[in-house]
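Dear colleague,

Thank you for sharing your sequence with our group. We've completed the structure prediction you requested, and as agreed, I am returning the results in plain text so they can be pasted directly into your records. Please verify that the sequence below matches your submission; if there's any discrepancy, let me know and we will rerun it promptly.
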Amino acid sequence: MNTAIISGANGNVGKCIVEHFLEEEWRVYALCKREDSAKALAREFVRFSATLNVVVCDLASTVSTQHFLTRSELQSVDAVIHTAGGIEAGKAIEETTPDMVQAMLEINYVTAFNLLRVTMPLLKVRGGTVLTIGAKAALAPEADKSAYAASKAALIALTQATAHEGKQHGIRANCLVPSIIDTPANREWGALEDIVNWVTPKTIAGAAWMLCTAAGRGISGAILPMRGMM
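Please find the predicted structure tokens below.
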């Protein structure tokens, strides 16, 4: 049975990816930052309890990340999918504090780096796939999003470096870059005529599945925009 580690598993995108891989009969280690989120996820997917391992792990902490790996006793893994991240925007460069910059780097880049740092040896056992979730702002930076755009650009660079480092071990690494994702939070401000054109979490989950299976075997080091119909 193939094994996937999926971070941000309680988020809109992460949850859809978790469900898709479970339905395809993979064993999934679903990482959540908070215990309440982990418990809620376990309840929602109780039908998959035989193949789902929900783990509380703060990926911003090297100690917590290493503790997860040690406790899991995993000897190899077939896919590492990093969906954890966040956004704090709306301020001009001169109004953006060093703390905001650090927060964006921590949640969007450091979490991915810490996860890859401990899982690359597992991926090297028999080859596998790394998948990250970028953001449109990293490819086309916008005003008042400087820290966020930079942190997501760093994530893309990390993904591409992973593709190069993993090549000789049969490891592929790619980054999906959605535009606006159809989530409840985004629907609060989106106009109905625009929402129908947004990319859905289920569409992202389908792309993730393709990239982590034989269908995506020839794709590595790619930045793959997912703009929906925008």
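Summary note from our side: The first helix runs from residue 12 to 23.

Kind regards,
the structure core
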